[in-house]
């Protein structure tokens, strides 16, 4: 449940919001708004991909009930993250600011972040539930 209500020109907080959140959003309104926007974009992309793939692509067809099944899933996520990080490394070291195949660097950054969240969900025992 969100502690923030956004209106056209103002952010309103519930009484449960941490004071640091209020402070940071006041001091750095553009940065924090962009962070929030990107998180929403990531969330929507995650949902679209899960609609297409289902949870089995991350659980590798298992039920994620044993330590071995969770380890397999986390290893798969690590491989996906490593692919994106290697891609970013190649682009950054070569001085290219955009990628071939129509995927900009920003997409790779967001993918790494989403894979990290997905790994945390797997580790917390909530994947596919």
Describe this structure in words.
The protein is globular, with a radius of gyration of 18 Å. The mean pLDDT is 88. A hairpin with a 4-residue loop joins strand 1 (4-6) and strand 2 (11-13). It has helices at residues 19-27, 29-53, 56-59, 67-94, 105-123; strands at 4-6, 11-13. It contains five helices and two strands. The chain is mainly alpha-helical. Helices cover 66% and strands 5% of the residues. A two-stranded antiparallel ribbon has the order 1-2.
**What Rg do the Cα atoms give?**
18 Å
Which series of helices and strands comes N to C?
EEHHHHH
The rounded distance between the terminal residues' Cα atoms is 18 Å
SS content category: mainly alpha
Shape: globular
Helix content: 55-70%
What would the keywords be for this entry?
129 residues; mainly alpha; two-stranded antiparallel sheet; 5 helices; globular
List the helices and strands and how they pair.
Blueprint lengths: L3 E3 L4 E3 L5 H9 L1 H25 L2 H4 L7 H28 L10 H19 L6
Helix pairs in contact: 1-2, 2-5, 4-5
């Amino acid at each position: 449940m969100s502690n923030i209500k956004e209106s056209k020109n103002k952010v309103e907080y519930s009484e449960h919001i941490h004071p640091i959140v209020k402070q940071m959003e006041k001091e750095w309104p553009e940065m924090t708004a962009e962070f929030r926007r990107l998180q929403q974009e990531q969330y929507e992309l995650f949902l679209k991909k899960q609609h297409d793939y289902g949870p089995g692509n991350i659980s590798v067809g298992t039920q994620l009930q044993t330590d071995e099944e969770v380890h397999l899933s986390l290893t798969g996520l690590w491989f996906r993250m490593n692919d994106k990080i290697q891609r970013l490394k190649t682009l950054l070291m070569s001085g290219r600011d955009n990628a071939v195949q129509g995927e900009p660097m920003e997409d790779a950054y967001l993918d790494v972040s989403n894979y990290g969240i997905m790994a945390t969900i797997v580790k917390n025992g909530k994947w596919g539930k």
